[in-house]
């Protein structure tokens, strides 16, 4: 039987995973919202479905594995809102189901360490929506669910270099603020390792080994480019969108021992320095 991944919201992380699966002979079906994105998926060997809109019954019938990257919509999970009954009826059909969540479910821990057992005390509406969505997926009987709580994602096309080059980057300073982050290639490696070694009910933090203040990342990017380090701006005085400001409501360092101990993952980019050096070597303009 052909292994078939049905990926809802097949975006940045999903494409990183299909780079690993397609060469192994997997069939990958990915949902997207536009004809343009559907054409791009088809060009890379993914079977696109424009959804909402398409009848997902044939894809669900074929799927051996599910990946859910779609984010909550108005506080509820869009996949379950539309397809809960169909997914529940097929729960035992799937060998593996992965839900991409966020470390934002932990909320603010004052810069201290958290692991997968930490209480879920989200400080933002986005984090609360993820807690709700996680619980909704966990409530489906017999579903071989795996939850992946992702730290801040970067990678090709999503690095700080463009802003540093343009002069628009700022080093926003908030005392004690630290973020965990992860390279998209390491997300794909974690997902592939979990698919190869399913453990229904498992929850994994996906992040690198080096939580760091955001201003340090910007400064290092400038150093790599040989450009002046952007000015420092105190958080209280910084002009920011409400969404950007909300990220600073939480400070924590996220542990990643479980992806190493249980899944045997060796990170390609264990810290932001190695990740940024690789991005610059690729010269992708990120």
Notable characteristics:
single chain, 286 residues, alpha/beta, Rossmann fold, 7-stranded parallel sheet, two-stranded parallel sheet, 11 helices, 18% strand, globular
Give a short summary of the structure.
The chain has 286 residues and is an alpha/beta fold. It has helices at 12-21, 35-43, 57-62, 78-89, 125-138, 161-166, 184-196, 214-225, 242-247, 257-261, 272-282; strands spanning 4-8, 27-32, 47-50, 65-68, 96-102, 113-114, 145-150, 152-154, 171-173, 181-183, 203-206, 232-234, 253-254.
Structure description:
Helix 1 (12-21) packs across helix 7 and helix 8 packs parallel to helix 11 (272-282). Strands 3-2-1-4-5-7-11 form a 7-stranded parallel beta sheet, with helices on both faces. Strands 6-13 form a two-stranded parallel sheet. By secondary structure, the protein is α/β, with parallel strands linked by helices. The protein has a domain at 4-154 and 182-207 and 255-268: NAD(P)-binding Rossmann-like Domain (Rossmann fold, 3-Layer(aba) Sandwich), CATH 3.40.50.720. It contains 11 helices and 13 strands.
Computed over alpha carbons, the radius of gyration is 19 Å
- CATH fold title of the domain at 4-154 and 182-207 and 255-268: Rossmann fold
Instruction: Supply the CATH class of the domain at 4-154 and 182-207 and 255-268.
Output: Alpha Beta
Largest sheet: 7 strands, parallel
- The number of distinct β-strands equals 13
Fourth-level CATH superfamily of the domain at 4-154 and 182-207 and 255-268: NAD(P)-binding Rossmann-like Domain
Structural category is alpha/beta
What string gives the helices and strands in order? EHEHEHEHEEHEEHEEHEHEHEHH
Strand line-up in the sheet with most strands: 3-2-1-4-5-7-11
Overall mean pLDDT: 95
Q: What portion of the residues fall into strands of 2 or more residues? A: 15-25%
- The helix count comes to 11
N-to-C terminal Cα separation, in Å? 40 Å
Low-confidence stretches: none
Helical residue percent band: 25-40%
- Described by the principal axes of the CA atoms, the overall outline is globular
CATH architecture of the domain at 4-154 and 182-207 and 255-268: 3-Layer(aba) Sandwich
